[in-house]
Amino acid sequence: MENITLDEFEHLVSEGIDSLPNEMLNALDNVIFLVEDEPEDGSDTLGVYEGFSLQERGLYGYGEEPDRIILFRKPLIAHSDSLESLVKEIRVTLVHEIAHFYGISEERIHELGWG
């Protein structure tokens, strides 16, 4: 699994985004998806949402930098024991981070079985 290149991983992320329901993606505004090898803090975090949730968008102004959903390649690969498992973890992580965009709390994400 460790031999998955950045390009191959980015392709899997792109396919993961394409597999999500349109209803989940339609309201995403000024959000970019990025892949990084690992978090700067060296943790085993799989992904992160950086930005203003829809609930905070009242504070959001014109010309703001895009919000970012970042998936971390090395932790996701380490967390997976097969390509099929990696594809599933990428999708779960995307859903989890998109939920943060909508302002859904970590607790609620787990209650819903999304994380």
Brief rundown of the structure:
This protein is of the alpha+beta class. The chain has five helices and three strands, in the order H-H-E-E-E-H-H-H.
Percent of residues in beta strands? 5-15%
* Spatial ordering of strands, largest sheet: 1-3-2
Order of helices and strands: HHEEEHHH
Give the total of beta strands.
Answer: 3
Rg value: 14 Å
Structural class: alpha+beta
Mean pLDDT: 89
Cα separation of the termini: 22 Å
Task: Enumerate the spans where pLDDT stays under 50 for 5 or more consecutive residues.
Answer: none
Helix content: 40-55%
Q: How many H/I helical runs?
A: 5
Oligomer: single chain
The biggest sheet, with number of strands, parallel, antiparallel or mixed sense and barrel status, is:
3 strands, mixed
Name the overall outline: globular
Description:
With 115 residues, the protein is of the alpha+beta class. 42% of the residues lie in helices and 14% in strands. Helix 1 crosses helix 4.
Relevant terms:
5 helices; 3 strands; three-stranded mixed beta sheet; alpha+beta; 115 residues
Topology record:
Layout (H helix, E strand, L loop, with lengths): L5 H13 L3 H4 L5 E6 L10 E4 L16 E6 H6 L4 H19 L4 H6 L4
Parallel strand pairs: 1-3
Antiparallel strand pairs: 2-3
Helix pairs in contact: 1-4
